Amino acid sequence: MDILEFVGPNRAVQLFGVKLVGVNADNGGKLLFSIAFVLVLLILNSVARKLTTAVLSGRAERYRFWTRQAIQVFSALILVVGLASIWFDDPTRLATALGLVTAGLAFALQRVVTAIAGYVVILRGQTFSVGDRIVMGGVRGDVIGLSFTQTTIMEMGQPPPVQNADPAMWVRARQYTGRVVTVSNAKIFDEPIFNYTRDFPFVFEEMVLPIPYTADRAKAESILLEVAKRHTVHETEIGHEALEEMRRRYFMERASTEPRVYWRLTDNWLELTVRFVTREHGVRDVKDRMSREIIRELDAVGIGLASATFEIVGLPKVQLSIDGPQPA
Hints:
The protein is α+β, with helices and mostly antiparallel strands and 328 residues long. The protein has three domains: 4-88, no CATH class; 133-195, no CATH class; 202-301, Alpha-Beta Plaits (2-Layer Sandwich), CATH 3.30.70.100. The chain is built from nine helices and eleven strands.
C-alpha cells in the first residue's frame, strides 16, 4: 500500500489508505494560486504606497494619509473578490459560504464588525480626519493614524478645570504627554466625539483675574482687554467665510469673536474674566505670554491680585485659673 495516493475523479488525497476529506489536487492548485495572488497583491500594494509617497511628497500629510487609506481599502476589496473567485466557482456555494461566514462574524466578532463599520463612517469625513484634535473614548489628542478597527491618537494633557477627569494626567495643559493611544473605531457609535479643529479650528478661552474691590477696576479691565487684543486671534484672521460657512452648515447664532471682560461679584473680591478666541494649538503659550504681560502691567499701576484673607475683628475675654498652692 502506498503512503500517498490520488484516488477518484477529483484526485482526492489518500494517506495510508485513509481518504482525506476536501484535500485533493484541485484544492491544492487553488491554494497555490491563492498564495501567489496574495503575494502579488502585497507587492503591488507596497509599490503603490511608495509611488504615493514620491508623487505627493510636497503635499500636506492629510492628502498622503487619505491616499494610502484608499489604497488599503481598494487592496482589501480586490483580495476578497479575488479569493472568492478562486475558491467559489459555483454561485450557489458562494452564497452559502457567505451566509455562514456572515452569521459567524455577527455572533463571534461583534465588536470587530462594529469597529469596521465605524471605519466606514469615519471615511466619509464627517466625524474627524487625520490631524484633527479630538476627544474619543475618553482620550484627548491629535489623530495620527487610522486603521480598519482602531484610531491612533497622540495623547495630550488636560487643563486644570478637567484635571480630575479619568484617566488622570500629569500635564496640566493641552500639550502632548508622549503616550500614543489606540481607540476602537466602535466608540463613535457609543460616545460623543469632540472635535476641536474640524470645521472651526479656534476655541473660545477664558482667563480669570481676582482683584480687590478697592482697586482701580476700570484700569484693570482696560489692561485685560489690551493684552487680549495683542495676543489673541482677531476676527480678520478667522475669516468672514469661515464664520459664514459655520452658520450655513449648522444652526448657530452669530457669536462675537472680539475680546471682552465680564465682571462677577464674590464675597472676597471682584472677579474679572477675559474671554477671547485663539487657535486650538498653542493655547498654553498664548496664556503664558498674556499672564506675564498682565502681571507686569498691573504692577506698573499698583494693582494687586486678591487672595483669600481673614480679618480678626475681636477676641473673647480669656479667664485663667491656677489650681494648687500659690507662691509666697
